[in-house]
Amino acid sequence: MDFVKRVTTEGTPNFVPEADRIAIFDNDGTLWPEQPICIQFIFAFDRLKSLTRIRPELRQIEPFLSVMEGGLNAMTTLDATEIVEIIKVAQSGMSTEQFSSIVAEWLAVAKDLRFGRVYTELVYQPMLELLDYLRLNRFKSFIVSGAGADFIRVFAERTYRIPPEQVLGSTTLSELRWGKDGPMLMKIPQVDVLDEGPGKPPAIDRFIGRRPIFAFGNSDGDKEVLQWTAAHPLTGFVGLLHHTDAEREWAYDRDSNVGRLDEALDLACANQWTIVDMARDWNTVFTPERATET
Amino acid sequence: MDFVKRVTTEGTPNFVPEADRIAIFDNDGTLWPEQPICIQFIFAFDRLKSLTRIRPELRQIEPFLSVMEGGLNAMTTLDATEIVEIIKVAQSGMSTEQFSSIVAEWLAVAKDLRFGRVYTELVYQPMLELLDYLRLNRFKSFIVSGAGADFIRVFAERTYRIPPEQVLGSTTLSELRWGKDGPMLMKIPQVDVLDEGPGKPPAIDRFIGRRPIFAFGNSDGDKEVLQWTAAHPLTGFVGLLHHTDAEREWAYDRDSNVGRLDEALDLACANQWTIVDMARDWNTVFTPERATET
Protein backbone atom coordinates (compact mmCIF):
# COMPACT_ATOMS: atom_id res chain seq x y z
CA MET A 1 0.00 0.00 0.00
CA ASP A 2 2.98 2.31 0.64
CA PHE A 3 4.18 1.63 -2.88
CA VAL A 4 0.78 2.18 -4.47
CA LYS A 5 0.28 5.42 -2.55
CA ARG A 6 3.73 6.60 -3.62
CA VAL A 7 3.21 6.03 -7.37
CA THR A 8 -0.38 7.33 -7.47
CA THR A 9 0.09 10.63 -5.60
CA GLU A 10 0.18 13.35 -8.21
CA GLY A 11 2.80 16.06 -7.89
CA THR A 12 5.33 13.84 -6.12
CA PRO A 13 8.62 12.70 -7.70
CA ASN A 14 7.52 9.04 -7.70
CA PHE A 15 4.19 9.63 -9.42
CA VAL A 16 3.63 7.19 -12.31
CA PRO A 17 0.98 8.06 -14.93
CA GLU A 18 -1.87 5.55 -15.26
CA ALA A 19 -0.69 4.27 -18.63
CA ASP A 20 2.62 3.14 -17.13
CA ARG A 21 1.09 1.32 -14.17
CA ILE A 22 1.73 -2.13 -15.59
CA ALA A 23 1.58 -5.04 -13.13
CA ILE A 24 2.43 -8.61 -13.97
CA PHE A 25 1.61 -11.82 -12.13
CA ASP A 26 2.79 -15.36 -12.54
CA ASN A 27 -0.18 -17.78 -12.49
CA ASP A 28 0.71 -21.27 -11.20
CA GLY A 29 1.70 -21.00 -7.54
CA THR A 30 1.07 -17.25 -7.49
CA LEU A 31 -2.66 -16.97 -8.19
CA TRP A 32 -3.65 -20.62 -7.74
CA PRO A 33 -1.90 -23.83 -6.60
CA GLU A 34 0.68 -25.73 -8.61
CA GLN A 35 1.05 -28.71 -6.26
CA PRO A 36 1.20 -31.65 -6.56
CA ILE A 37 1.18 -30.88 -10.30
CA CYS A 38 0.38 -27.97 -12.58
CA ILE A 39 -3.42 -27.89 -13.10
CA GLN A 40 -3.13 -27.58 -16.88
CA PHE A 41 -1.27 -30.92 -16.91
CA ILE A 42 -4.22 -32.58 -15.18
CA PHE A 43 -6.44 -31.20 -17.94
CA ALA A 44 -4.01 -32.44 -20.60
CA PHE A 45 -3.85 -35.85 -18.94
CA ASP A 46 -7.66 -36.19 -18.81
CA ARG A 47 -7.86 -35.13 -22.42
CA LEU A 48 -5.18 -37.62 -23.41
CA LYS A 49 -7.21 -40.39 -21.81
CA SER A 50 -10.18 -39.51 -24.04
CA LEU A 51 -8.00 -39.07 -27.11
CA THR A 52 -6.30 -42.45 -26.81
CA ARG A 53 -9.70 -44.09 -27.04
CA ILE A 54 -10.15 -42.55 -30.50
CA ARG A 55 -6.45 -42.75 -31.44
CA PRO A 56 -5.18 -45.96 -29.76
CA GLU A 57 -1.95 -45.76 -31.76
CA LEU A 58 -0.85 -42.98 -29.38
CA ARG A 59 -0.54 -45.60 -26.65
CA GLN A 60 2.33 -47.20 -28.57
CA ILE A 61 4.64 -44.19 -28.63
CA GLU A 62 6.46 -42.09 -26.07
CA PRO A 63 5.84 -39.98 -24.10
CA PHE A 64 2.15 -41.06 -24.29
CA LEU A 65 2.96 -44.70 -23.46
CA SER A 66 4.65 -43.81 -20.16
CA VAL A 67 1.96 -41.34 -19.18
CA MET A 68 -0.96 -43.66 -19.94
CA GLU A 69 0.76 -46.47 -18.03
CA GLY A 70 2.18 -44.42 -15.16
CA GLY A 71 -0.85 -42.19 -14.66
CA LEU A 72 -0.87 -38.57 -13.64
CA ASN A 73 2.27 -38.94 -11.51
CA ALA A 74 4.23 -39.87 -14.63
CA MET A 75 3.50 -36.34 -15.94
CA THR A 76 5.74 -34.90 -13.21
CA THR A 77 8.73 -36.90 -14.44
CA LEU A 78 8.57 -35.59 -18.02
CA ASP A 79 11.06 -33.04 -19.34
CA ALA A 80 10.00 -29.84 -21.12
CA THR A 81 10.18 -31.38 -24.61
CA GLU A 82 7.93 -34.27 -23.60
CA ILE A 83 5.43 -31.91 -21.98
CA VAL A 84 5.30 -29.95 -25.23
CA GLU A 85 4.65 -33.21 -27.13
CA ILE A 86 1.68 -33.91 -24.86
CA ILE A 87 0.32 -30.37 -25.20
CA LYS A 88 0.68 -30.51 -29.00
CA VAL A 89 -1.64 -33.52 -29.11
CA ALA A 90 -4.00 -32.60 -26.27
CA GLN A 91 -4.54 -28.99 -27.33
CA SER A 92 -4.82 -29.11 -31.12
CA GLY A 93 -7.11 -30.51 -33.81
CA MET A 94 -10.11 -28.33 -33.00
CA SER A 95 -11.12 -24.71 -33.54
CA THR A 96 -9.99 -22.13 -30.98
CA GLU A 97 -13.64 -21.74 -29.90
CA GLN A 98 -14.06 -25.52 -29.51
CA PHE A 99 -10.89 -25.68 -27.44
CA SER A 100 -12.17 -22.97 -25.10
CA SER A 101 -15.44 -24.88 -24.67
CA ILE A 102 -13.57 -28.10 -23.86
CA VAL A 103 -11.50 -26.31 -21.19
CA ALA A 104 -14.58 -24.56 -19.77
CA GLU A 105 -16.48 -27.85 -19.51
CA TRP A 106 -13.52 -29.51 -17.78
CA LEU A 107 -13.09 -26.63 -15.33
CA ALA A 108 -16.80 -26.81 -14.46
CA VAL A 109 -16.56 -30.39 -13.22
CA ALA A 110 -12.96 -31.48 -12.49
CA LYS A 111 -12.18 -31.26 -8.78
CA ASP A 112 -8.93 -31.09 -6.88
CA LEU A 113 -8.31 -34.44 -5.17
CA ARG A 114 -7.16 -33.00 -1.87
CA PHE A 115 -9.54 -30.05 -1.47
CA GLY A 116 -12.55 -31.47 -3.31
CA ARG A 117 -13.33 -28.17 -5.04
CA VAL A 118 -13.26 -27.11 -8.68
CA TYR A 119 -9.97 -25.42 -9.53
CA THR A 120 -11.38 -21.94 -10.20
CA GLU A 121 -12.51 -21.87 -6.57
CA LEU A 122 -9.00 -22.71 -5.42
CA VAL A 123 -7.62 -19.30 -6.31
CA TYR A 124 -5.95 -17.34 -3.55
CA GLN A 125 -8.36 -14.89 -1.93
CA PRO A 126 -5.63 -12.40 -0.86
CA MET A 127 -4.31 -12.27 -4.43
CA LEU A 128 -7.82 -11.54 -5.76
CA GLU A 129 -7.96 -8.68 -3.27
CA LEU A 130 -4.56 -7.46 -4.45
CA LEU A 131 -5.74 -7.55 -8.08
CA ASP A 132 -8.84 -5.55 -7.09
CA TYR A 133 -6.76 -3.07 -5.14
CA LEU A 134 -4.43 -2.47 -8.09
CA ARG A 135 -7.39 -2.15 -10.48
CA LEU A 136 -8.92 0.45 -8.19
CA ASN A 137 -5.63 2.36 -8.38
CA ARG A 138 -5.66 2.22 -12.19
CA PHE A 139 -3.03 -0.45 -12.66
CA LYS A 140 -3.38 -2.74 -15.66
CA SER A 141 -2.57 -6.31 -14.58
CA PHE A 142 -1.25 -9.04 -16.86
CA ILE A 143 -0.63 -12.72 -16.26
CA VAL A 144 2.74 -13.88 -17.57
CA SER A 145 3.03 -17.65 -17.42
CA GLY A 146 5.20 -20.36 -18.92
CA ALA A 147 2.02 -22.48 -19.02
CA GLY A 148 -0.78 -22.21 -21.57
CA ALA A 149 -2.23 -18.78 -22.29
CA ASP A 150 -4.98 -20.53 -24.28
CA PHE A 151 -5.85 -22.52 -21.13
CA ILE A 152 -5.65 -19.64 -18.63
CA ARG A 153 -7.63 -17.25 -20.84
CA VAL A 154 -10.69 -19.47 -20.53
CA PHE A 155 -11.15 -18.69 -16.83
CA ALA A 156 -9.01 -15.57 -16.20
CA GLU A 157 -11.74 -13.08 -17.04
CA ARG A 158 -14.38 -14.52 -14.75
CA THR A 159 -11.98 -15.66 -12.03
CA TYR A 160 -9.40 -12.87 -11.89
CA ARG A 161 -11.18 -10.15 -13.91
CA ILE A 162 -8.18 -10.24 -16.26
CA PRO A 163 -9.31 -10.24 -19.92
CA PRO A 164 -7.78 -12.67 -22.48
CA GLU A 165 -5.66 -9.94 -24.09
CA GLN A 166 -3.89 -9.48 -20.74
CA VAL A 167 -2.81 -13.12 -20.47
CA LEU A 168 0.63 -14.03 -21.88
CA GLY A 169 1.87 -17.58 -21.99
CA SER A 170 2.77 -20.54 -24.14
CA THR A 171 0.13 -21.62 -26.63
CA THR A 172 -0.60 -24.07 -29.41
CA LEU A 173 -0.67 -22.03 -32.59
CA SER A 174 -3.64 -21.74 -34.94
CA GLU A 175 -4.17 -21.58 -38.67
CA LEU A 176 -6.92 -19.98 -40.72
CA ARG A 177 -9.24 -22.56 -42.31
CA TRP A 178 -12.58 -22.38 -44.05
CA GLY A 179 -15.37 -24.13 -42.14
CA LYS A 180 -19.10 -24.26 -42.87
CA ASP A 181 -19.60 -20.88 -41.16
CA GLY A 182 -16.73 -19.20 -43.03
CA PRO A 183 -13.20 -18.59 -41.85
CA MET A 184 -12.20 -20.01 -38.45
CA LEU A 185 -9.00 -20.76 -36.58
CA MET A 186 -7.88 -24.37 -36.24
CA LYS A 187 -5.43 -25.19 -33.47
CA ILE A 188 -2.44 -27.01 -34.95
CA PRO A 189 0.10 -29.29 -33.21
CA GLN A 190 2.74 -26.58 -32.90
CA VAL A 191 3.58 -24.80 -29.65
CA ASP A 192 4.91 -21.28 -29.22
CA VAL A 193 6.68 -21.62 -25.87
CA LEU A 194 7.01 -18.71 -23.46
CA ASP A 195 10.17 -19.69 -21.61
CA GLU A 196 10.33 -19.31 -17.84
CA GLY A 197 13.23 -17.47 -16.26
CA PRO A 198 15.20 -15.23 -18.62
CA GLY A 199 12.48 -15.72 -21.27
CA LYS A 200 9.83 -13.76 -19.39
CA PRO A 201 11.19 -10.19 -19.85
CA PRO A 202 11.59 -10.55 -23.67
CA ALA A 203 8.06 -11.98 -23.88
CA ILE A 204 6.75 -8.99 -21.93
CA ASP A 205 8.55 -6.68 -24.33
CA ARG A 206 7.07 -8.58 -27.30
CA PHE A 207 3.49 -8.49 -26.00
CA ILE A 208 3.23 -5.48 -23.72
CA GLY A 209 6.04 -3.24 -24.98
CA ARG A 210 6.98 -1.72 -21.64
CA ARG A 211 8.69 -2.69 -18.42
CA PRO A 212 6.29 -3.36 -15.53
CA ILE A 213 6.54 -1.35 -12.30
CA PHE A 214 4.99 -4.20 -10.31
CA ALA A 215 5.68 -7.94 -10.47
CA PHE A 216 4.57 -10.86 -8.33
CA GLY A 217 5.87 -14.40 -8.56
CA ASN A 218 6.64 -17.44 -6.45
CA SER A 219 9.51 -19.42 -7.93
CA ASP A 220 12.93 -19.31 -9.56
CA GLY A 221 11.12 -19.20 -12.89
CA ASP A 222 10.19 -15.63 -11.95
CA LYS A 223 13.69 -14.63 -10.84
CA GLU A 224 14.73 -12.61 -13.89
CA VAL A 225 11.40 -10.88 -14.38
CA LEU A 226 11.47 -9.79 -10.74
CA GLN A 227 15.04 -8.48 -11.08
CA TRP A 228 14.13 -6.66 -14.26
CA THR A 229 11.07 -5.07 -12.63
CA ALA A 230 13.03 -4.12 -9.51
CA ALA A 231 15.52 -2.33 -11.80
CA HIS A 232 12.80 -0.17 -13.43
CA PRO A 233 14.35 3.29 -13.96
CA LEU A 234 11.48 5.02 -12.13
CA THR A 235 10.38 2.60 -9.45
CA GLY A 236 9.57 -1.07 -9.11
CA PHE A 237 7.70 -3.22 -6.61
CA VAL A 238 8.55 -6.89 -6.38
CA GLY A 239 6.60 -9.51 -4.44
CA LEU A 240 7.26 -13.16 -3.82
CA LEU A 241 4.79 -15.69 -2.45
CA HIS A 242 6.46 -18.24 -0.16
CA HIS A 243 4.46 -21.46 0.18
CA THR A 244 4.87 -22.23 3.89
CA ASP A 245 1.48 -23.63 4.77
CA ALA A 246 1.34 -27.42 4.56
CA GLU A 247 -1.88 -27.42 6.50
CA ARG A 248 -4.03 -25.07 4.48
CA GLU A 249 -2.19 -25.41 1.15
CA TRP A 250 1.34 -26.70 0.54
CA ALA A 251 4.82 -26.06 1.94
CA TYR A 252 7.73 -26.20 -0.49
CA ASP A 253 10.69 -24.15 -1.63
CA ARG A 254 14.35 -25.00 -2.23
CA ASP A 255 14.01 -28.75 -2.86
CA SER A 256 10.76 -28.86 -4.78
CA ASN A 257 10.60 -30.20 -8.33
CA VAL A 258 7.48 -28.14 -9.00
CA GLY A 259 7.88 -24.39 -8.46
CA ARG A 260 11.31 -24.52 -6.88
CA LEU A 261 12.05 -21.35 -4.90
CA ASP A 262 15.74 -21.11 -4.11
CA GLU A 263 17.79 -18.42 -5.85
CA ALA A 264 14.84 -16.04 -6.02
CA LEU A 265 14.35 -16.42 -2.25
CA ASP A 266 17.99 -15.49 -1.59
CA LEU A 267 17.63 -12.49 -3.91
CA ALA A 268 14.43 -11.42 -2.19
CA CYS A 269 16.13 -11.51 1.21
CA ALA A 270 19.23 -9.71 -0.03
CA ASN A 271 17.24 -7.00 -1.82
CA GLN A 272 14.43 -6.61 0.70
CA TRP A 273 11.74 -7.58 -1.75
CA THR A 274 8.32 -8.16 -0.21
CA ILE A 275 8.05 -11.81 0.79
CA VAL A 276 4.57 -13.11 1.61
CA ASP A 277 4.75 -16.00 4.06
CA MET A 278 1.51 -17.83 3.39
CA ALA A 279 1.19 -19.44 6.85
CA ARG A 280 2.03 -16.26 8.72
CA ASP A 281 0.55 -13.53 6.53
CA TRP A 282 -2.70 -14.88 5.12
CA ASN A 283 -5.90 -15.10 7.18
CA THR A 284 -7.60 -16.88 4.32
CA VAL A 285 -5.98 -18.91 1.55
CA PHE A 286 -8.71 -19.88 -0.91
CA THR A 287 -11.89 -18.08 -1.93
CA PRO A 288 -14.60 -18.83 0.63
CA GLU A 289 -16.94 -21.73 -0.17
CA ARG A 290 -20.17 -20.38 -1.51
CA ALA A 291 -23.38 -21.32 0.29
CA THR A 292 -25.05 -22.08 -3.02
CA GLU A 293 -22.39 -24.55 -4.04
CA THR A 294 -23.65 -27.99 -5.03
CA MET B 1 -22.82 4.64 -36.27
CA ASP B 2 -25.68 2.24 -36.99
CA PHE B 3 -23.41 -0.65 -36.11
CA VAL B 4 -22.12 0.96 -32.91
CA LYS B 5 -25.62 1.83 -31.80
CA ARG B 6 -26.75 -1.73 -32.49
CA VAL B 7 -24.03 -3.43 -30.41
CA THR B 8 -24.13 -0.95 -27.51
CA THR B 9 -27.89 -0.87 -26.88
CA GLU B 10 -28.55 -3.02 -23.85
CA GLY B 11 -31.48 -5.41 -23.95
CA THR B 12 -31.35 -5.89 -27.72
CA PRO B 13 -30.35 -9.17 -29.40
CA ASN B 14 -27.23 -7.59 -30.94
CA PHE B 15 -25.90 -6.14 -27.71
CA VAL B 16 -22.19 -6.92 -27.20
CA PRO B 17 -20.73 -6.56 -23.67
CA GLU B 18 -17.88 -4.05 -23.33
CA ALA B 19 -15.24 -6.72 -22.88
CA ASP B 20 -16.00 -8.18 -26.30
CA ARG B 21 -15.91 -4.87 -28.16
CA ILE B 22 -12.55 -5.54 -29.76
CA ALA B 23 -11.68 -3.38 -32.78
CA ILE B 24 -8.60 -3.84 -34.93
CA PHE B 25 -6.97 -1.47 -37.38
CA ASP B 26 -4.24 -1.94 -39.93
CA ASN B 27 -1.68 0.88 -39.69
CA ASP B 28 0.09 1.64 -42.99
CA GLY B 29 -2.46 3.00 -45.47
CA THR B 30 -5.27 2.77 -42.91
CA LEU B 31 -4.19 5.22 -40.20
CA TRP B 32 -1.35 6.99 -42.04
CA PRO B 33 0.07 6.92 -45.60
CA GLU B 34 2.10 4.09 -47.09
CA GLN B 35 2.98 5.79 -50.38
CA PRO B 36 5.39 6.07 -52.05
CA ILE B 37 6.97 3.74 -49.47
CA CYS B 38 6.20 2.42 -45.99
CA ILE B 39 7.36 5.07 -43.47
CA GLN B 40 9.23 2.54 -41.34
CA PHE B 41 11.40 1.71 -44.37
CA ILE B 42 12.41 5.39 -44.63
CA PHE B 43 13.46 5.20 -40.99
CA ALA B 44 15.38 1.96 -41.63
CA PHE B 45 17.05 3.52 -44.68
CA ASP B 46 18.13 6.62 -42.74
CA ARG B 47 19.46 4.45 -39.98
CA LEU B 48 21.33 2.25 -42.44
CA LYS B 49 23.05 5.34 -43.82
CA SER B 50 24.36 6.16 -40.34
CA LEU B 51 25.27 2.56 -39.60
CA THR B 52 27.32 2.08 -42.76
CA ARG B 53 29.53 4.95 -41.64
CA ILE B 54 30.45 2.93 -38.55
CA ARG B 55 30.27 -0.45 -40.28
CA PRO B 56 31.50 0.18 -43.86
CA GLU B 57 31.72 -3.59 -44.48
CA LEU B 58 27.91 -3.59 -44.77
CA ARG B 59 28.30 -1.68 -48.05
CA GLN B 60 29.98 -4.73 -49.58
CA ILE B 61 27.11 -7.18 -49.08
CA GLU B 62 23.54 -7.51 -50.32
CA PRO B 63 20.93 -6.29 -49.83
CA PHE B 64 22.75 -3.32 -48.23
CA LEU B 65 24.90 -2.73 -51.31
CA SER B 66 21.88 -2.27 -53.61
CA VAL B 67 20.06 -0.07 -51.14
CA MET B 68 23.02 2.22 -50.43
CA GLU B 69 23.69 2.56 -54.15
CA GLY B 70 20.07 2.74 -55.35
CA GLY B 71 18.79 4.97 -52.58
CA LEU B 72 15.38 4.88 -50.97
CA ASN B 73 13.70 3.77 -54.19
CA ALA B 74 15.73 0.57 -54.13
CA MET B 75 13.91 -0.33 -50.88
CA THR B 76 10.66 -0.77 -52.85
CA THR B 77 12.23 -3.45 -55.06
CA LEU B 78 13.31 -5.70 -52.18
CA ASP B 79 11.49 -8.92 -51.36
CA ALA B 80 10.28 -9.81 -47.87
CA THR B 81 13.45 -11.69 -46.91
CA GLU B 82 15.66 -8.78 -47.91
CA ILE B 83 13.49 -6.33 -45.98
CA VAL B 84 13.87 -8.55 -42.91
CA GLU B 85 17.67 -8.51 -43.41
CA ILE B 86 17.61 -4.71 -43.39
CA ILE B 87 15.38 -4.53 -40.31
CA LYS B 88 17.59 -7.05 -38.47
CA VAL B 89 20.56 -4.71 -38.85
CA ALA B 90 18.78 -1.37 -38.53
CA GLN B 91 16.69 -2.29 -35.48
CA SER B 92 19.04 -4.29 -33.26
CA GLY B 93 22.23 -3.82 -31.26
CA MET B 94 20.78 -1.43 -28.69
CA SER B 95 18.52 -1.68 -25.66
CA THR B 96 14.76 -1.56 -26.21
CA GLU B 97 14.69 1.85 -24.50
CA GLN B 98 17.53 3.16 -26.70
CA PHE B 99 15.68 1.94 -29.79
CA SER B 100 12.53 3.79 -28.76
CA SER B 101 14.55 6.98 -28.26
CA ILE B 102 16.16 6.64 -31.70
CA VAL B 103 12.72 6.25 -33.33
CA ALA B 104 11.27 9.15 -31.31
CA GLU B 105 14.15 11.44 -32.32
CA TRP B 106 13.75 10.48 -35.97
CA LEU B 107 9.97 11.03 -35.89
CA ALA B 108 10.49 14.47 -34.36
CA VAL B 109 12.52 15.73 -37.31
CA ALA B 110 12.09 13.56 -40.43
CA LYS B 111 9.60 15.11 -42.85
CA ASP B 112 7.59 13.69 -45.68
CA LEU B 113 9.07 14.89 -48.99
CA ARG B 114 5.76 15.66 -50.65
CA PHE B 115 3.80 17.14 -47.76
CA GLY B 116 6.69 18.69 -45.83
CA ARG B 117 5.31 17.64 -42.46
CA VAL B 118 6.55 15.21 -39.83
CA TYR B 119 4.93 11.81 -40.23
CA THR B 120 2.94 11.82 -36.99
CA GLU B 121 1.06 14.85 -38.33
CA LEU B 122 0.22 12.94 -41.50
CA VAL B 123 -2.26 10.68 -39.78
CA TYR B 124 -5.80 10.61 -41.11
CA GLN B 125 -8.06 12.97 -39.18
CA PRO B 126 -11.27 10.98 -39.90
CA MET B 127 -9.62 7.81 -38.56
CA LEU B 128 -8.59 9.62 -35.36
CA GLU B 129 -12.23 10.63 -34.98
CA LEU B 130 -13.31 7.04 -35.57
CA LEU B 131 -10.87 5.84 -32.88
CA ASP B 132 -12.25 8.44 -30.48
CA TYR B 133 -15.82 7.47 -31.30
CA LEU B 134 -15.14 3.80 -30.64
CA ARG B 135 -13.29 4.63 -27.40
CA LEU B 136 -16.28 6.65 -26.26
CA ASN B 137 -18.44 3.60 -26.92
CA ARG B 138 -16.15 1.38 -24.85
CA PHE B 139 -14.43 -0.42 -27.67
CA LYS B 140 -10.81 -1.47 -27.14
CA SER B 141 -8.85 -0.75 -30.32
CA PHE B 142 -5.71 -2.59 -31.42
CA ILE B 143 -3.33 -1.99 -34.29
CA VAL B 144 -2.48 -5.18 -36.19
CA SER B 145 0.30 -4.57 -38.69
CA GLY B 146 2.77 -6.61 -40.69
CA ALA B 147 5.24 -3.77 -40.06
CA GLY B 148 7.18 -3.16 -36.86
CA ALA B 149 5.26 -3.12 -33.60
CA ASP B 150 8.43 -1.82 -31.93
CA PHE B 151 8.39 1.13 -34.37
CA ILE B 152 4.64 1.88 -34.19
CA ARG B 153 4.53 1.64 -30.38
CA VAL B 154 6.82 4.66 -30.09
CA PHE B 155 4.18 7.05 -31.45
CA ALA B 156 0.87 5.14 -31.19
CA GLU B 157 0.06 6.28 -27.68
CA ARG B 158 0.51 9.99 -28.30
CA THR B 159 -0.76 9.97 -31.88
CA TYR B 160 -3.64 7.48 -31.80
CA ARG B 161 -4.15 7.13 -28.02
CA ILE B 162 -3.46 3.40 -28.48
CA PRO B 163 -1.07 2.10 -25.78
CA PRO B 164 1.93 -0.13 -26.66
CA GLU B 165 0.22 -3.27 -25.37
CA GLN B 166 -2.50 -2.76 -27.99
CA VAL B 167 -0.07 -2.71 -30.92
CA LEU B 168 0.64 -6.05 -32.64
CA GLY B 169 3.17 -6.40 -35.42
CA SER B 170 6.51 -7.77 -36.48
CA THR B 171 9.43 -6.97 -34.19
CA THR B 172 13.11 -7.57 -33.67
CA LEU B 173 13.36 -9.81 -30.63
CA SER B 174 15.21 -8.94 -27.44
CA GLU B 175 17.38 -10.78 -24.95
CA LEU B 176 17.96 -10.16 -21.26
CA ARG B 177 21.46 -8.79 -20.56
CA TRP B 178 23.12 -7.25 -17.54
CA GLY B 179 24.05 -3.59 -18.02
CA LYS B 180 25.45 -1.09 -15.53
CA ASP B 181 21.93 -0.35 -14.21
CA GLY B 182 21.05 -4.02 -13.81
CA PRO B 183 19.05 -6.21 -16.18
CA MET B 184 17.96 -4.68 -19.50
CA LEU B 185 16.68 -5.93 -22.84
CA MET B 186 19.05 -5.87 -25.81
CA LYS B 187 17.49 -5.98 -29.27
CA ILE B 188 19.04 -8.84 -31.24
CA PRO B 189 19.21 -9.34 -35.04
CA GLN B 190 16.27 -11.75 -35.12
CA VAL B 191 12.82 -10.83 -36.38
CA ASP B 192 9.50 -12.30 -35.31
CA VAL B 193 7.40 -11.65 -38.40
CA LEU B 194 3.66 -11.04 -38.22
CA ASP B 195 2.59 -12.21 -41.67
CA GLU B 196 0.09 -10.18 -43.64
CA GLY B 197 -2.98 -11.88 -45.13
CA PRO B 198 -3.82 -15.26 -43.60
CA GLY B 199 -1.25 -14.61 -40.84
CA LYS B 200 -3.23 -11.83 -39.20
CA PRO B 201 -6.08 -13.86 -37.62
CA PRO B 202 -3.70 -16.36 -35.91
CA ALA B 203 -1.60 -13.44 -34.61
CA ILE B 204 -4.74 -11.86 -33.17
CA ASP B 205 -5.59 -15.14 -31.50
CA ARG B 206 -2.03 -15.38 -30.10
CA PHE B 207 -2.00 -11.82 -28.71
CA ILE B 208 -5.61 -10.87 -28.05
CA GLY B 209 -7.30 -14.24 -27.64
CA ARG B 210 -10.64 -13.31 -29.16
CA ARG B 211 -12.15 -12.54 -32.53
CA PRO B 212 -12.73 -8.81 -33.17
CA ILE B 213 -16.22 -7.50 -33.93
CA PHE B 214 -14.78 -4.55 -35.85
CA ALA B 215 -11.93 -4.45 -38.37
CA PHE B 216 -10.62 -1.72 -40.66
CA GLY B 217 -8.03 -2.18 -43.39
CA ASN B 218 -7.06 -0.91 -46.82
CA SER B 219 -5.36 -3.64 -48.82
CA ASP B 220 -5.32 -7.30 -49.81
CA GLY B 221 -3.05 -7.88 -46.82
CA ASP B 222 -6.16 -7.32 -44.70
CA LYS B 223 -8.42 -9.58 -46.74
CA GLU B 224 -8.47 -12.61 -44.45
CA VAL B 225 -8.75 -10.63 -41.21
CA LEU B 226 -11.72 -8.75 -42.65
CA GLN B 227 -13.40 -12.00 -43.76
CA TRP B 228 -12.76 -13.54 -40.35
CA THR B 229 -14.21 -10.49 -38.57
CA ALA B 230 -17.23 -10.37 -40.89
CA ALA B 231 -17.89 -14.03 -39.97
CA HIS B 232 -18.00 -13.30 -36.21
CA PRO B 233 -20.76 -15.51 -34.76
CA LEU B 234 -22.47 -12.52 -33.10
CA THR B 235 -21.86 -9.59 -35.41
CA GLY B 236 -19.02 -8.02 -37.30
CA PHE B 237 -18.33 -4.66 -38.89
CA VAL B 238 -15.79 -4.46 -41.70
CA GLY B 239 -14.41 -1.26 -43.21
CA LEU B 240 -12.07 -0.69 -46.12
CA LEU B 241 -10.29 2.55 -46.97
CA HIS B 242 -10.02 3.10 -50.72
CA HIS B 243 -7.22 5.52 -51.68
CA THR B 244 -8.87 7.54 -54.46
CA ASP B 245 -7.46 10.99 -53.83
CA ALA B 246 -4.34 11.72 -55.88
CA GLU B 247 -4.69 15.40 -55.12
CA ARG B 248 -4.85 15.40 -51.31
CA GLU B 249 -3.12 12.02 -50.71
CA TRP B 250 -2.60 9.20 -53.20
CA ALA B 251 -4.74 7.19 -55.59
CA TYR B 252 -3.93 3.51 -56.00
CA ASP B 253 -5.59 0.11 -55.84
CA ARG B 254 -5.44 -2.95 -58.12
CA ASP B 255 -2.09 -2.31 -59.80
CA SER B 256 -0.11 -0.88 -56.91
CA ASN B 257 3.02 -2.59 -55.61
CA VAL B 258 2.55 -0.96 -52.23
CA GLY B 259 -0.78 -1.70 -50.54
CA ARG B 260 -2.40 -3.42 -53.48
CA LEU B 261 -6.21 -3.46 -53.13
CA ASP B 262 -7.75 -5.90 -55.56
CA GLU B 263 -9.34 -9.08 -54.18
CA ALA B 264 -10.39 -7.35 -50.96
CA LEU B 265 -12.15 -4.65 -53.03
CA ASP B 266 -14.14 -7.29 -54.93
CA LEU B 267 -15.05 -8.97 -51.67
CA ALA B 268 -16.11 -5.66 -50.13
CA CYS B 269 -18.41 -4.94 -53.07
CA ALA B 270 -19.86 -8.47 -53.12
CA ASN B 271 -20.46 -8.50 -49.34
CA GLN B 272 -21.53 -4.90 -48.91
CA TRP B 273 -18.70 -4.08 -46.54
CA THR B 274 -18.31 -0.37 -45.80
CA ILE B 275 -15.98 1.18 -48.36
CA VAL B 276 -14.60 4.63 -47.58
CA ASP B 277 -13.79 6.50 -50.78
CA MET B 278 -11.20 9.02 -49.63
CA ALA B 279 -11.88 11.62 -52.34
CA ARG B 280 -15.64 11.45 -51.98
CA ASP B 281 -16.15 10.76 -48.28
CA TRP B 282 -13.49 12.72 -46.41
CA ASN B 283 -13.74 16.48 -45.86
CA THR B 284 -10.30 16.48 -44.32
CA VAL B 285 -7.50 13.98 -44.91
CA PHE B 286 -4.66 14.85 -42.53
CA THR B 287 -4.71 16.37 -39.07
CA PRO B 288 -4.95 20.16 -39.39
CA GLU B 289 -1.66 22.08 -39.36
CA ARG B 290 -1.14 23.59 -35.95
CA ALA B 291 -0.70 27.33 -35.71
CA THR B 292 2.21 26.85 -33.30
CA GLU B 293 4.10 24.65 -35.72
CA THR B 294 7.65 25.76 -36.51
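The first helix of chain A runs from residue 2 to 8.
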